[in-house]
C-alpha cells in the first residue's frame, strides 16, 4: 500500500457515507409531503421506503460476491452512477411507481458504498478493524444530522421536497471526484478466495450473526425512518429528535475504539440491545419534552449496532472476507425492507382504531405512533436474548478472533 493515500480514501469513503445517510434522513423528512402531493397512504409510503432497503442488500450481495474480482474502485463507480440516477429520477418523479424506481436506485447506490468501503477499511486498518469501522460509520449518523437539519430548515421555509433531494447532488459529486483521482489498495489482509468465502458461510456463528443483524437493523432503522410520522403530533420536533439522536450516535462511534477494546464487541452488542429495548419502550410512553430524554437513551442504545456487527464479522469470521461483511449488512437492510410496509400498516390500523374510538385526527395519529413504537420494542428485546447467549461463549470465541492492537489511527 506504499502508493495508496489511506487518509484520502478514508475521507472520500466518509463523504460517500454522508450521501447514503442523507438519503435516509431527507426521505424521512419529506414523507408527509410525498403523501400529500401524490395521495399516498402510509402503507404505500412504506413500500417506497422498502425499495431503499431492498436495493441496499441486493447491491451488498452482488458487491460481496464480486469484490475479490473487481475491487473497491468499480463498486464505487456503480455507487456514484446509481446515486446520480436515483436522485435525479426522484426529483422528476410523478407518483408512486416512479418513486419506487428512483428509491431503488438510491438504495442500490447506498449498498454499493458499504460493499466497497467496509472491506477496504478492514483491510487498510487490519489491526484496529472494529474501531476504524465505527469511525467510518460515524458519518452515517453524522450525515443524518446534516440531512435532518437541512430538511427541517428547507421545510420550515417552504422549500419543496425536490430541492431537498437536489441538495444531495453536491456531496455526491464531491465524493465521486475524490475517489476517482485516488489509487486503491490491493487486498492484503482479508481472505480473497471467493470459494473459501462461500464455504465459510456455513459456519453456525455466521448464521447466528446473520439472524442477529436482521433484528439490530430494524431496531435502529424502524424508529428512525418513521420518526416524522410517529412523533409528528407529540409536541416534540421529529427532525430535531432525529438530529439529536444521530448526533449522539456520531460522537459515540467516533470514540468507540477504547470502549470496544475494553469491553470487546460481544459485550458492546449485549449492552446496546438492553439499552435500546428500554429506550424504545420509553419513547412509546413519553410525553412532550420527555421524548427527547427517551431519544437520547435510544441513541446510546443503537449507536454501536451496525459497525460493531460488521467489525465482529471481520474479526471473528475472517475467512468469510468481503462477502461475509456484505452479506451481514445486506441481511440487515433486507429485513428492514420487509418490515417497512408492515410498520406502515401498523400505523394505518392503529389510527383507524383510534379514530373509531372517537379520538380527533391529531390525537389519533399520536396514539397510533405510540402503539407502533410499543410493537417495535420487541425487536431489540429479542436480539438482547440472542446476544446474552453469545456472551456466555465469549471466552471460547476469542480464540478465533483476528488479533487486534490498541493503535491510534490518525485520520485527517
TrEMBL record:
Membrane topology: Multi-pass membrane protein
Gene Ontology CC annotations of this record: endomembrane system; membrane
Residue spans crossing the bilayer: 44-68, 75-93, 161-180, 201-219, 239-256, 263-284, 290-310, 322-343, 376-393
Domain Major facilitator superfamily (MFS) profile: 9-400
Entry keyword annotation includes Transmembrane helix: yes
Domain of life: Bacteria
Single GO MF descriptor: transmembrane transporter activity
One Pfam family here: MFS_1
Cellular compartments annotated: Endomembrane system
SUPFAM superfamilies tied to this protein: MFS general substrate transporter
InterPro entries, sorted: MFS (IPR011701), MFS_dom (IPR020846), MFS_trans_sf (IPR036259), MFS_Transporter (IPR051788)
The keyword Transmembrane helix appears for this protein: yes
UniProtKB keywords: Membrane, Transmembrane, Transmembrane helix, Transport
Family: Belongs to the major facilitator superfamily.
Protein name as it appears in the record: MFS transporter
